[in-house]
Amino acid sequence: MAVLTIDIGNTRGKFAVISQEGVLISFGYLENLDGGLGEIKQLCENSRIWEDPIKSIIYSSVKKVLFDWTLWKLDELNPIEIKDLMFLLPFQVDIEQPETLGSDRLAGVMGCMYFLENRRTNGLRNVSGQIEQLHDRDFSYNTNTSGLDDEPEEKSPKKAENDSTRFGIPDFMMIDAGTCVTYDYVKGGVLRIDNRNSMELGSIGSEPRLDTSETPVYFGGAISPGLRLRYKAMSDYTDALPLLDVGLEDSGRFEIGDIGKQTVEAMHSGVIVGFVDEISRRIDRFKEKFVDSQVFLTGGDADFLGKRLKSGIFVEPMLLHYGLFYADQFKR
User: For the chain, what are the domain ranges?
Assistant: First the structure.
């Protein structure tokens, strides 16, 4: 049985259907961000003839969207926002006012943990390869899984010998490059999850029980303007600078360096080089402090930025959807 994941962002909504084995069945974009569920209803009805019909719906949203699941007769699929599962998820939230933490950030953290768990069990599934097959898009640079290191050295004897229900999660940082870029930081720990079922890709049973004394801890983050916001701000708050609506595509006409020879080049240099430098320096500082750590990059600009950042990070545009899929397994 499959899980339908929905991610409502600032500019568009996306959905994905993922089988219980962790295989991406379908994904696409939602036309209506204001709560219309016609597309979702049709998708759920179509899935009834699939080998893995949709059995559950879980979503994240940065907008205050009120879905009328009952009107569309989707309540039988037990739809839930990931924020409603916050205190059931396998990590602690150590920030002021944890209820204000965005559901997209919760989903991203869960996505990182999903991949970190799976590389210990069945190896890393090439999710981007699945997307490429579905939509014939070039995600080839993503197929290099060197961003996920080999099993890191254990810093303490937390990991139990011969105990498949205990596995270590290293410190990690998640970068979500969308309308805004968000940085999220998690201190690693040990997950202890009982009643694991026999799903192929490191799945969780229906009633996970967590040893919260050792679980990973989300300890904060940062928010910064995304690429397009930076272009828009220069145009909106100056008289002379143009709005480079196609800034990212237009920048491909010439090499972006530290010094531009004309206004457009200078704007691209300021935005793109500045943005890459910002992210790179944050990664460096994180790696300096947390040696055996991992860095994940996702979001609408992940593929653009992934080609410009140093190696050693794991780029996955579908990270939030796999996080939602993972979180769905913690429903009670």
Answer: 82-225+312-328
